[in-house]
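Morning, I've got a small favour to ask if you have a moment. I've dropped the whole record in just underneath, so have a look.
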Amino acid sequence: MSPTYDAGMASNTEAQQPHGAGQPPSVMAYDTRLATRIPRAVDQRLRLFAVLVRKPLAHVLSDVLAAALPTDAELAARLQQMGERDR
């Protein structure tokens, strides 16, 4: 990872502070770093959207993923269905 990319970011091994009552609502606690490659056009759209909504890119990406992915309960139900079909 590049030094400029990691500048100012806590590592996965450092203790992360949970979201507390004294923190502003825009502060989020992170405990995992997601590193993947995405198309340049998607990266540009994410960054532009983050500017438009005035949120950090990590917050926007977290919101987008949370909205797109099934809930924990839906995933558990799907996994259970898969297990039942495989019997």
The chain has one domain: 3-85.
